[in-house]
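[Discussion] Sanity-checking designs against the backbone

I'm trying to build intuition for which residues belong where. Below is a structure token string of 385 positions. I'd appreciate it if someone posts a full sequence so I can compare it with mine line by line.
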């Protein structure tokens, strides 16, 4: 398995789903540390954050409790890199490249079960060939999922109510800097209204009213506030709600409108529940365009083209395949190396699931109207950065 194949394999797996399969209770993108004895009160308030978008986890107290989905399996099962990867491949065989199956079978025959106190290898170069460089592991007697404890800080229903309450405090984008930013990209009011776009026009008011109503600890827990106790979206005031089929939003993405801000986008912590513009996946036969990002999706919607968006090249989850079962899919990720690689990978997933798919512009590369290298859909339609 090459580095690229390994990246694609990990990117297609929900780290939240893997954690739950390992017996870890995940709530709102957090779980209790696997080493509760290191924490005050046994880590009663979960200290480990999951980034579903990046496929990583991190404990904010224990510096050695962090990593990707393979690292998570290694820590919980106290095993080597190869054994953790083998376990994941057994769980998700339909994601494994054929060449990697043969290689893993060969390596598994040579690999003995994990011993107590084993050191795990570092991953450099080809992920399955560099298995000799050791890296110290946590104490094995401490490596186990925590015992079930008290209920989470807020329930799932309370979490949804808090997110809705946050969105209701925001302003429509009309006559704001966010509106000018959108208009430069040829995204106009009919689309703003349809997709319920919002913006933060008075940061202090939103910040303080949320804190007064819900408290700092709860707002950190649901992911609206940062570790310093402030609303996370000071530099990212444009809000894109992810509407469900009933046009409710319990998840959103935010966007900076100052081009110097890095990163350009922030997602609400926790699992991305479904692609952006879920209503396009209506179980009716037809075509749908799969875009990279919200802005490209909005661009297509402004052109009356049925489209959905994913947060990034590597954010498509296999759990979403069933949503596309009635559709023919046009893949239109960014016209660059990462986008082409992503389209090839996602296209293979659709093909294996029996979903017809094509790549936008394939066979038309030499036409004057074709997308240029480095362009995205919004660029292609004449949007201005």
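Best answer:
Here's mine. Compare freely.
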């Amino acid at each position: 398995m090459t580095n690229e194949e390994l990246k694609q394999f990990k990117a297609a797996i929900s780290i939240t789903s893997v954690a739950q399969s390992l017996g870890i209770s995940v709530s709102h993108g957090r779980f209790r540390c696997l080493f509760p004895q290191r924490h005050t009160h046994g880590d009663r308030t979960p200290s480990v954050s999951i980034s579903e978008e990046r496929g990583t986890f991190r404990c904010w107290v224990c510096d050695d409790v962090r990593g990707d989905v393979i690292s998570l399996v290694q820590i919980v099962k106290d095993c080597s890199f190869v054994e953790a990867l083998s376990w994941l491949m057994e769980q998700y065989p339909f994601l494994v490249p054929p060449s990697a199956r043969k290689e893993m079978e060969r390596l598994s025959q040579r690999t003995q079960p994990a011993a107590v106190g084993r050191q795990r290898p570092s991953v450099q170069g080809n992920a399955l060939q560099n298995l000799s460089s050791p890296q110290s592991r946590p104490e094995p007697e401490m490596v186990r999922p925590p015992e079930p404890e008290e209920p989470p800080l807020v329930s799932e229903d309370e979490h949804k109510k808090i997110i809705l309450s946050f969105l209701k405090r925001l302003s429509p984008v009309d006559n704001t800097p966010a509106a000018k930013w959108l208009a430069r990209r040829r995204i106009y009011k009919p689309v703003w209204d349809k997709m319920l776009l919002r913006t933060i026009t008075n940061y202090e008011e939103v910040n303080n009213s949320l804190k007064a109503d819900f408290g700092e600890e709860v707002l950190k827990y649901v992911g609206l506030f940062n570790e310093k106790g402030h609303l996370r979206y000071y530099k990212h005031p444009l809000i894109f709600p992810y509407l469900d089929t009933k046009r409710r939003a319990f998840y959103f993405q935010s966007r900076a409108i100052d081009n110097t801000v890095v990163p350009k986008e922030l997602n609400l912590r926790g699992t991305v529940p479904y692609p952006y513009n879920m209503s396009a996946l209506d179980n009716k036969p037809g075509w749908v365009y799969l875009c990279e990002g919200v802005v490209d999706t909005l661009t297509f919607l402004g052109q009356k083209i049925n489209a959905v968006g994913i947060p990034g090249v590597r954010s498509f989850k296999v759990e979403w395949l069933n949503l596309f079962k009635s559709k023919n899919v046009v893949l239109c990720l960014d016209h660059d190396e990462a986008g082409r690689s992503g389209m090839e990978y996602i296209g293979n997933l659709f093909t294996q699931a029996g979903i017809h798919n094509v790549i936008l512009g394939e066979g038309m590369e030499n036409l004057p109207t074709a997308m240029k290298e480095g362009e995205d859909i919004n660029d292609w339609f004449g949007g201005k950065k």
